[in-house]
Amino acid sequence: MGNVDQVTRAEADSLVEVLDLDRIETNIFRGWSWHTAPTRVFGGHVAAQALIAAGRTVAPDRPVHSLHAYFLLPGDPGAPIVYDVDLIRDGRSFTTRRVVAIQHGRAIFHLSASFQRVTDGPEHQSPMPPAAPPDELPVSLPEELPEWSLPNGGSVEPFFSRYLDVRLVPTEGADGSVQQPVWSSHGEPHSPYQRMWFRARGTLPADPLYHVCAVTYASDLRLITTTLLPHRSTDGRTISLASLDHAMWFHRPFRADEWLLYIQDSPSAAGSRGFARGEIYTADGRLVVSVAQEGLMRLHS
């Protein structure tokens, strides 16, 4: 993809370009960050690229069914990322890969992924909670996101709105009141529950790997902010968040360029760590992905 000696690049035109990698050795790949990224690489970006790298070493008849990852160091958006794939196991039914993302000679991210030959078996799922249809909701991204604002005063918003169509869903509080979607850590406390519709812009290729990686990219959006909602304040205190780990389970096939409903909640925060989980449904109510994440919560006065 382009000049592999280039250190930084202009904006990608599509999520496919974000996910595309240069293969520089049999199991070694190079990915890119973009000028629209924040001061550190978006966690969903490096997770999605790592999964693409792993998937490129697996037979196409074995889709990914789970991933488990740790964020080790903030990524530098001005430098390429090297993905070193370790071929852990190729069994009769399962394939296991480990990926280390490297920048400036140091590991910044670690991912383990498991792929499975498609088989039939018993099925059940939780029902999809009710939500207003996405076409009835505005494109509700604010002009500025305080916790992700850039040093030059710009906003981080374009780095994902360029690739994702996102519609935030108002939430009903415990007292029956309607809670509007929240971006900032300032304001009245909010129940640790939020919902959003999302889809990749444009049409993705037929290859299912692009669709699971597109959802991996989107899965990091807003999830850890669910943990701060009960702790919002009106006295000037802020809480900074940093993702520590991330896990996903892919239950059923889906297309990421069609509407998906992302249900997020946080059952616990303790020890300066917040835990959040998510469920992703297709518009017709199929549960296709489950997500879990823990993040560091630092309180500032």
Report on this structure.
The protein is 11% helix and 38% strand. It is mainly beta and 301 residues long. The strands form two sheets. A twelve-stranded antiparallel β-sheet has the order 1-2-4-5-6-3-11-14-13-12-10-7. Strands 8-9 form a two-stranded antiparallel sheet. The model is unreliable at 1-8 and 142-157 (pLDDT under 50).
**Uncertain stretches of 5 or more adjacent residues:** 1-8, 142-157
Report the order of strands and helices: HEEHEEEEHEEEEHEEEE
Amino- and carboxy-terminal Cα gap:
46 Å
Strand content: 35-45%
Average pLDDT number: 85
Class from secondary-structure proportions: mainly beta
Q: Helix share of residues? A: 10-25%
Individual helix count = 4
Order of neighbouring strands in the sheet with most strands: 1-2-4-5-6-3-11-14-13-12-10-7
Number of strands: 14
What spatial form do the alpha-carbon principal axes imply?
Answer: globular
Nearest-angstrom radius of gyration? 19 Å
**How would a crystallographer describe the biggest sheet?**
12 strands, antiparallel
Short description:
The protein is built from 4 helices and 14 strands. It has 301 residues and is mainly beta.
